[in-house]
Amino acid sequence: MTFPFDRADPESAVAEMAARCSNWGRWGEHDVRGTLNHLDEAKRREAAALVRRGAVFSLAQRFDVDGPQRGWRRRTNPVHTMLDTGTDAAAGKQGFPHGIGGADDVVSMPLQCSTQWDGLGHIFDHAKAWNGRPAEEVVTAAGDHVTGIETVADGFTGRAVLLDAGRALGTGGELPDGYAITAQELTEIAERQGSPVGRGDIALVRTGQLARARRDGWGTYAGGPAPGLSFTTAEWLHGTEIAAVATDTWGVEVRPNEFDDAFQPLHQVAIPHIGLFLGEMWDLDALAADCAEDGQHAFLLTAAPIPITGAVGAPVNPIAVK
């Protein structure tokens, strides 16, 4: 498919796509849930009915110092520190009565250093946040006062569909870096799998990049070239009325982006205009292997973010149940 925008003019392309896909005002001026409004109780009942075997899959990468982060914009890997240990207990240094001892620990990390959701306060378009609010009134040094991730802590449980683009379009189950997945390809994958994607669903798109990073080393996984969604999928993301989308890559959309000089233009439409939640760095490999084996690509997903008050994104341990 020919790219339908001027690659030298991402600003005009973003403006045009934002106008086509805007959900501003759709759920009222005070809305904080965005596309999660599509995911209702009926969709959750539908999702629960998909559980047949009781098999569970964690879709989270590990949170440790050996993660993919390289320090871009001060993003580092988690630092885990023990406050109390078994050594302390054995040495009798803890001061507890009748022989009881214990261990405690602390972790320091950016909230988007591993498997996570982007919240609605994460990205702005010309200083406008979700629903047209002024960015400076939404997110300050004290955090997101309006759409903090805690406002949707109960929202991410429903029907999910794995779209295994790596297997369907790639070689050896992996797409090459720079591969832009189109809306037509997403639709064809869903049809081939017999798992349509529609209102209230959570779409999980596997590219295979994480599998390659595991095999070959992290390299530039965090922020470098990657397969991902084409900018042109914005209309599909809007028109399908999905609740959220997540991928196994650092940034969901294809990198390098499809313009001569741009940075995450699909984010610029999806988050502040569509009100769509984006999941990044999800581990979809074991789930994808199981889906390929049993042919069931739709399942129950629960993926609640840690409800850190005022956060614009949060870690998550997504659980798929089949």
From TrEMBL:
<dbReference type="InterPro" id="IPR007325">
    <property type="entry name" value="KFase/CYL"/>
</dbReference>
<dbReference type="GO" id="GO:0016787">
    <property type="term" value="F:hydrolase activity"/>
</dbReference>
<protein>
    <submittedName>
        <fullName>Cyclase family protein</fullName>
        <ecNumber>3.5.-.-</ecNumber>
    </submittedName>
</protein>
<dbReference type="InterPro" id="IPR037175">
    <property type="entry name" value="KFase_sf"/>
</dbReference>
<dbReference type="Pfam" id="PF04199">
    <property type="entry name" value="Cyclase"/>
</dbReference>
<keyword id="KW-0378">Hydrolase</keyword>
